[in-house]
Amino acid sequence: MQSQAVAVRVEDLDDKALVELARGRERAAFRQIMQRHNRQLYRVARSVLRDDSEAEDVVQEAYARAFAHLDQFRGEARLSTWLTRITLNEALGRLRQRRPSVDLAAIDSISDQGETRVIFLSSSRQDGDPEAAAARAEVRRLLERAVDQLPDPFRMVFVLRDIEELSIEETASHLGLRPETVKTRLHRARRLLRQSLDKTLSSTLADVFPFGGARCARITETVLERLDLPE
């Protein structure tokens, strides 16, 4: 039987309260946790693997691992941070199985040349304009291809920092890097993107690798089935 808090407005609960309910096997709490964090975890997994279906699998597996070990979440870090670390570990493990490890020393030695202006991508939208919508869709495709072509270490830093808007310190913690290394790789990732995109390109990073309702629902329902919770 659901608790009164869950029956009233589970979406208003903070992550700490949701975790407590999830420890009591409240189905609604699991659902809300996933709906709240699905998009970020999917983008993180995809930044590592560059494959939509495999990214979905990674997110589902990460949730299964996290939910099986909720007793290990102490609340010292944010739930999103804890889930992101689990997702990254799962994605990086699959990447290591797929191909040899990259030469990080070679990646970090890429030359810095040219202007240092940070890539500018406007967040303005014109939802009522079909032509503008079509243009944004094409821009997203161009950006996705450009981001996919970044070397792995640069791509992961770029997605966490510029798309998910994590801080330098959070990004460094997730990837096990020094903050100075994050700054360097982000700078070089932006430079490589500028070199592959037209100077007049303007759109929004928020729509890169869109996470639609169908994908969110699919991940959530699959994990709930694996948990075998009471209705």
How would you sum up this structure, described in words?
By secondary structure, the protein is mostly helical. It has two domains: 4-100 and 212-227, RNA polymerase sigma factor, region 2, helix turn helix motif (Rna Polymerase Sigma Factor, Chain: A, Orthogonal Bundle); 104-207, Arc Repressor Mutant, subunit A (Orthogonal Bundle). 66% of the residues lie in helices and 0% in strands. The chain is built from eleven helices and no strands. α4 (52-68) packs across α5, α8 packs antiparallel against α9 (168-175) and α8 (152-163) crosses α10. It is globular and about 50 Å long.
Quick recap:
The chain is mainly alpha-helical and 231 residues long. The protein has helices spanning 4-9, 15-23, 27-49, 52-68, 79-98, 104-108, 130-148, 152-163, 168-175, 179-196, 213-227. It is built from 11 helices and no strands.
